[in-house]
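TICKET: design request
STATUS: open
ATTACHED STRUCTURE:
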């Protein structure tokens, strides 16, 4: 795995709800321990997708059907 794939793998693992639940107490007092999971390449792909969403969220077009405080996106932004 490349450095980028390893980073994405770790990001994917750290965002797994099952991992967060299982290691909740340990994560509060120590550094995270990253297990080597089966299908690590798949976790790297998932982690990369999460990174893309979390880093580039401002560049994604908002859903037009979503209301923000009862207003459409355009109404909310432009008053």
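STATUS: resolved
RESOLUTION: sequence designed for all positions
ATTACHED SEQUENCE:
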């Amino acid at each position: 795995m490349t450095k980028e794939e390893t980073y994405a793998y770790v990001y994917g693992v750290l965002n797994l709800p099952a991992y967060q639940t299982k290691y909740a107490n340990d994560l509060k007092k120590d550094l995270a321990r990253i297990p080597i999971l089966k299908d690590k390449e798949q976790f790297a792909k998932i982690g990369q997708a999460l990174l893309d969403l979390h880093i580039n969220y401002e560049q994604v077009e908002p859903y037009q059907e979503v209301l923000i405080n009862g207003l459409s996106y355009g109404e909310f932004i432009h008053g």
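CLOSING REMARK: DSSP finds five helices and no strands in the chain. The CA atoms of residues 13 and 46 lie 9 Å apart.
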